[in-house]
Amino acid sequence: MQGKQLTMLLGVLYGGAFLAGFNENLVNMGLIAIMDEFVIDSVTAQWLVTGFMIASTIIVMCMAFLYRRIKLRSLFFAASALTLAGSVLGLFSTNFAMLLVARIIQAVGSGVFIPLMMNTILAVTPKNKLGSYLSLGGCTITFGPAFAPVICGALVTNLGWRSIFIAPIAVMVLLGVLGFIYVKDLENSEAHLDAPSVTLSGVTLFALSFGLAEIAIDTVLGAVSLIIAVAAAVAFVARQLACQYPLIELSPMRRVSFWPAAVFALVSLMSTFSMSVLLPLYLEGACGITAFVAGVVMLIPVLCNAASTLISGRIMDKRGGWPLIPLGFASIAVGFTLMAIFASTYSIVAMFFASTLVFIGVGMSLAPSQTAGLRTLPPRENPFGVALMTTFTQIAACAGPSLYIGLMSSSENAALNSGALETAAVAQGFAVAVCFAAALALASAIGAIAFCRAALKRSNAASKHAQAQLPTEIALLMEKTPFVVNDTMPVGEVMHELVNRKVSGMPVVNDGGVPIGFISDGDIMRYLSECHPAITSSYSLMEAANSQTFDEKLKELVALPVSHIATERVVSISQDATLQEACTLLAQHKLKKVPVVQNGAIVGMLSRSDVIRYAMNNALAGIEE
């Protein structure tokens, strides 16, 4: 799949991922209004967020099965129908229980979209572009939380909290129409679902979220819940290792190149999910601003997160995770620390800049962490790696808000009991929560340094080993006696070389053999076209040469040194580069051939036809086997 079909398919799936991110944060700006209408506290209200995440996580854990068993088109429309149904029910909710059910139905549909997008990217895009495509996907997910505060804040302020469900209804209808046109089925494979594993995962997530929310309020109840969560988690892991068809294949977690990356993604996501709940509560509860203004304050930081995610993905493709991931966590730690310091000042400006640092840090650490883990997996483990990464995402979404709101609520209640004003109590609770987040981010930065340095050493060792074993594919495929011309050679002699050797261009080298340019028939034609606008093709050049009126400019041209008209910028590739890198270079620059260099000198010429022939021979050999 390629071209417009690929672009539109990914566009629709990116839209679904955007909506999933939007729905995760849908009720955040309306929590204060919901708490007032239904007379509930923040710990109860946060279950509209945590309950959504638990249901979504269970679906995510089933996605390795669903993606392989159900056709892409059917899976997309089932998710769309559930998301639409939950949104409609939420729009007409009359009590908290009805609203919670609506959020859970919405979560079942939304939980499909992000892993569906990630699995499809792995299936239809080249691996050397994986970081860019996943980062773009990360941006679309981030745009959901970016626009949710502003859109939902405006709706809550002007139309009431129920109106927030209008937005996902409208987006889902649009995506449904586009999906009907552009979402096509991919190849499926056999898969099985283990029901006890699904049950154990649900118990683990509920007990974990409940325990983290209660541990700072009711220590005994919270501790008992966390013990149940640990026991259920151990039973779940044992079940995955023992049963014939595990819900999640844990084999990627045995890889030292994968599991730390998953943990870093977890911490990074805990930061962003917690901020999406904590910051509105602080801005509305302590600073006294409206939901809409709070959403506007959060917009720029979250958009900065999207920008840093996109830029970081490109850096990751070129340079790897060092020092990108550690710097990201350092930025998160600094941002949270500044929030704790300025919480008691009620300064919206300070919160704006501090939250911007946090969100930029998340962009620098999240997608690169995911890419660092996923790119090391063999193709067979790709669906399991994606399932694990998205499961960690949902665990972060469950654990983060539960833990930090629990800490905030406990500290806030303690402050109120000591006689503090409500605004001061909210600020104190917020400061305690972000202090804990800062400590966690700092620990992650230290761990990321060790992880990235170790990954760099493994990569360098593997590269040296491969180079010592066999000549590179490029060295085997390239033409080892390349045609080159000296930079002092007259253009007339170069023309003879081009004609005699039946080539359209040759590298230009200096006396030391170092490439300094490239001369092609296009360069000659462009020079003549500047003097004679009628000469714009090979045919018109021949006609002009045969014409009695062809002026003497051509005589001047043939006497010029080739360096006068050659293209100065040389596109070349190292002999030690991979064939995949060569394909990327040829495609990006639209070249038919490229010089191969070693130690600064040209040692061969690699043509597009050589690469295509090699690929076709390998493909045919694989079919015959």
UniProtKB/TrEMBL annotation:
Subcellular compartments: Cell membrane
Keyword Membrane: yes
InterPro entries: CBS_dom, CBS_dom_sf, MFS, MFS_dom, MFS_trans_sf
Organism: Slackia isoflavoniconvertens
Protein name: Multidrug MFS transporter
Membrane association type: Multi-pass membrane protein
Residues spanning the membrane: 12-35, 47-67, 74-92, 104-124, 136-157, 163-183, 195-213, 219-238, 258-283, 289-312, 324-342, 348-366, 386-407, 427-456
Primary residence: membrane
